[in-house]
Amino acid sequence: MGAFYNILVAFGAAMGGFLFGYEIGVISQVLSMESFGLRFGLLTRDASGKVVDAADKDDMTGWVTFTFLFGCIIGAAAVSFLSDRFGRKRSLLIGGTFFLIGCAMQTAAGEIGLLYAGRLVGGMGIGVLSQVVPVYISETSPAGIRGRLTTIYQLMITIGIFIASCINSGIINSSLVGSDAEWRWALAVQMFPGFFLIGINAFMPYSPRWLMNKNRDAEAINAIAKLRNADPNSEIVQHEYHEIKNSIAVERQIGTASWSELKITGIFNRVLIGITLQFFQQWTGINVILYYQNELVEKMGFSKEDSATAFNLAINAINMVSTLPGMYLVERVGRRKLLLWGAIGMGLAQYVVTLALGLAKSTDTPKLAWLAIVAVFVFEINFASTWGPMVWTYQSEIYPMRIRSKATSCATMSNWTWNAVISKIAPLINKKAEHFTYLLWGSMSLFGFVFTYFCVPETMGKTLEDMDDLFGYTQGKTATPSQAVEDVSVAEPGKKA
After folding, report:
1. How far is 237 from 229, CA to CA, in rounded Å?
2. What 3-state DSSP class applies to 45?
3. DSSP structure class, residue 489
4. Residue ranges of the chain with pLDDT lower than 70?
5. β-strand partners of 52
6. Confidence (pLDDT) at 488
7. The whole model's pTM is what?
8. 398 — phi, psi (to 5°)?
9. CA pair distance 35, 29, nearest whole angstrom
10. Nearest to 405 by CA among 128, 198, 202
11. What distances in angstroms separate CA 148 from CA 121, 141, 331, 460, one per listed residue?
12. Please, where are the H alpha helices in 141-267?
């Protein structure tokens, strides 16, 4: 029952990932809707009445995605305070609320300003959720299955993308086509999982580590007991309680956590690893494919109808299913090996896309575009099973409790910053460099391999409290854990601390 409850808690929290995935799936198809383009100036009509691209379509398309991602950066920055002050559980509620407000603004938008504002607010909610969900899952999971449960966040992102593409494919082929109701319904439907996240929040436990950090020890013991399906006085619960309490007590000897502490030896290297892994995750080009896949497939020579439905569903289905091998392998071969294998696979796949599209163009052989599509599928398989889930898993487990929110915020801001930059410049790069763009993504994937090989140690099987030794953090080790615990009054279960 304990493992089952942990899985339910992980899936409940990972609804935050589902919201992000649904947003990706929605916007990639909404951007291709004629009614949306005409409403917000991405499309226009020529003298004959034919619908054509507006002169600044690429720039405006970039802004539609950029405003959302800029909001994510703000949310990821703010959550370092929210998560420490109000807790991981309440931060999930805050993120979900911002997302719902943003969705409502986008759905009601009649002009571009309100649309941008709605995407900014919705992005703030996703920025909060993207940082706090992996941390919350990591802090409530036992070490033996922590990696697998944390990858549920990425799985829910891919499920959200796939379900959004299924629903929107139905909308695209409905009687709503051509009217504002088409894109308004597409944007409004994502509010339903947002309400679900807020509703399920009431049944989720607080993070035991956060509770202990706030001296709410009795609540923490009961939370551990519920998560492990054991009696509060049992050995397994008491052992985990004392292990976490020892770690927190030792950390408190150093003083109040501050941003300057991120520069300390043994912490700074971890912060850099988290930031850099998120940098390389974005520079694989994954979100270019997810945000602009319809347009990219069209440029490969396929029809607009096939790009918006058949290929969209296929790419998103592969992305979803391919997350499962990573969930299985994360506690068997480890995070490091999956990152290394994935980087090679992604890099080679992107090179094949470049070669296939180049040959298709130079030899006038359109059928070679199918090879490019297969290579994109191979890229998706590699990303979804390795760099997609592993980067979030890794950054959620390597930082000590005292600065976990601040450090994970830095890494998450790296993700959203580069996501925003790439989404803004990608349409312009694609227009100028065409198929050679994939050469850039492939090369960056291989650079990610080099970084991982030399700088990323394995964390599989280690408790969150073991990470200091792994990364060479020695401050606060002058007192033994037992000495530190002697100064802490352990509350009796069921009584207030």
Report:
1. 9
2. strand
3. P
4. 1-2, 254-257, 291-296, 299-301, 304-308, 475-497
5. 44
6. 39
7. 0.81
8. -95, -10
9. 12
10. 128
11. 31, 10, 7, 10
12. 146-150, 152-172, 180-188, 191-200, 208-213, 217-228, 235-252
